[in-house]
Design a protein that fits this description.
By secondary structure, the chain is of the alpha+beta class. It has a 6-stranded mixed β-sheet. A hairpin with a 4-residue loop joins strand 4 and strand 5 (92-98). The protein contains 5 helices and 6 strands; from the N terminus they run H-E-E-H-E-E-E-H-H-E-H. Helix 1 (11-22) runs antiparallel to helix 2 (51-67) and helix 1 (11-22) packs across helix 5 (121-138). It is 42% helix and 24% strand. The chain starts with 10 loop residues before the first helix and ends with a helix.
């Protein structure tokens, strides 16, 4: 596979990308790890401006995945670390960083053999609006 096709992405990836864009995460990149890493198929990597934004995204991911009965194995987050992970199991892991921490860890370099794609908000934002509206109806 030489590129990432949006239509072939698992629901977990599309939902998470929608939430990231709706809550204004920046520099959202999808890494295809199939055949490279056994733990998960995709990483979604995004930059947050603050810990408050990071927490809001983690809370929304947790709520939406639960509402849709999608796999969610948990959250790895500690105040002050500037990096958090939302683990959606075999389909996806979402890595949220503050900018300097993202540069320091450089997942893109660590997984240089993966296929990477910078995601465009316009590809996900319309589903993000409807995503949030439907979740409120379920509660």
């Amino acid at each position: 596979m030489n590129e990432i096709n949006k239509e072939e992405l698992p629901e977990a990836v599309s939902l998470a990308a929608s939430i990231l864009f709706q809550l204004r995460a920046e520099t959202v990149e999808l890494m295809d790890l199939r055949g490279i890493k056994d733990v998960t198929d995709f990483f979604l990597v995004a930059t947050c401006e603050s810990e408050a934004q990071m927490q809001a995204i983690l809370n929304e991911l947790t709520k939406e995945f639960k509402a849709r009965k999608l796999s969610s194995l948990g959250v790895e987050y500690k105040s002050g670390v500037r990096w958090a992970i939302f683990d959606a199991g075999l389909d996806l892991m979402v890595h949220l960083f503050e900018e300097t921490k993202r540069e320091e860890i450089s997942l893109e370099r660590l997984y240089s053999k993966s296929i990477k794609k910078m995601l465009n908000e316009n590809d996900f934002v319309s589903s993000a609006s409807s995503t949030m509206a439907h979740s409120d109806e379920l509660i």
